[in-house]
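Attaching the record inline, Q. Sequence:
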Amino acid sequence: MKSHDSYQRWIYRGGHSNHWARVQNRACAIAFAAGILPGRAAALDIRGRRSGRVISVPVVVAGLEGERYLVAMLGQNANWVPNLRAAGGRAVLAHGQRETVRLAEVDSSIRAPILCRYLQVAPGARAHFPVNRRAPLEEFARIAPDYPVFRVQAGAA
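Structure, as predicted:
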């Protein structure tokens, strides 16, 4: 597990993806969008704020109390976050089928249980969080402002 965590930190050194991470992310996004891999993995398609091109990134959808959430595992440094904000939250989630969605940012004061759930279902993200997935909610509340969380709403309102 340690070597996997080290690899994850290396490919996202400085909070940004290196060449290998971009190749891996592209392959994962294609597989997730096609629904090839089971589970909570999906591809998130967002229009780039500068290029205008659609960018596809792999994400893990965390379910909690009947809602679906996306978490930026790299925190505020995740490139898809400003793209999503610039797009007014409009995006497409793909996992076998495409779903037009609106992603509404969740206030940091209520993110702790969502972040905890996210680390339970997204093992690849654990290396990027300064808390253990079994930590008390107070520790998640402490880091919550650093990790954007978005609630998935059906349709692009």
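The radius of gyration is 15 Å. The domain at 2-154 is CATH 2.30.110.10 (Pnp Oxidase; Chain A).

More tomorrow.
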